Structures are given as structure tokens and as C-alpha cells.
Amino acid sequence: MERRDISTIEVSVDDVDQLYESLDPYPFHDRDLDADAEAYIVGWARELPRDHAFRILVHLPPAAMNNPGAVGLSRSMKHFFALRAEAIERDLRELFRIGRMSLLIGAVVLVACVAAAQNAHLVLGEGPLLTVTRESLILLGWVANWRPLEIFLYEWWPVARRRNLYRRLSVADVELRETVGASHPA
User: Which residues in the chain belong to E strands, given as ranges?
Assistant: First the structure.
């Protein structure tokens, strides 16, 4: 049996409602997490090893343990992080769509620039202006491919990592634990 390490993210709040967006009118299982709570949890998750599963441990005072939001907190958090992962997945697909379109445009511009550079002597004759024009056209053709190459070589990685992080958070075990005494808000 494969052993999978689990990293714990701890959050202490005085009331479970601190974890939810206060202006969100939906029932608890559909509510958005508060932006600060999300940033706190995601920030800690980024610091933990990528090969570890997550456990989110929420510390609440005893009086807050029976709050309807506390009862549905696990489902709510999983739902929230799953929706965020889906949104990031859509962003990634859109980035690749833009990359494909940019690559098509860049390839057409490159072919046109190379053809124009090879035939520039027909219009300009020989001389320094021909050399500058040829080099400029070739440079323009390659610069037109800068953006698609940037997308396909570098830009998608952080988006995919963020999506994967939210996916891992969406399956994290969420546990409630009673605290005694003062707590520290998320």
C-alpha cells in the first residue's frame, strides 16, 4: 500500500462565519470563502510539499461548533475549492486557445516576413537599405511569435500549478476542533 503524507493547514476563528464571504447570499454549502480566509489557506498550501495531501483543521470555540455553517464547513470548502479549480481550468483552456490563435497569426507573419525579406531586392535593389530591410523583416517575423512561444513555453505552468493546488484543496479533509480560550482569526 502506497503511503501518502498529509500536511495540515490550521485555521483558528472565533466564529465560522468569519470564513465565509459576508455579502454572499447563498446557503452555507454554496457560499464563497472570505477572500482573506482563501488567501490564508492557499498561501499555506503553496508552502507545503506538492506530494502531500492536505488536511484543513479549523479551530472553533465550543459555542460555534453547532453553527449551521460549521456543520456544513467541510462540504462548503470542498465545493468552493472545486469551483475555483474548474474556473482555473477554464482559464488554462482559454490561455491555450489564445496561444494557438497567436501561433497561427505568428506563423503567417513569419512566412510573410521571410518571403518579403527574400524578395526585397526586387524593390530596393542592392545596398545598405536592403540589408536593414531584410534584417528588420526577419526580426519582425520572429517577434510576432514571441507571445505564442511565451504562452506554450512558460505562461501555462503557474496556471496549471494553481489549478492543481485548488484540486488538492478540494479533496482535503476538513476537520473541526474545539478551542479553549482565546483564538486567533484567520
Answer: 6-12, 53-60, 173-178
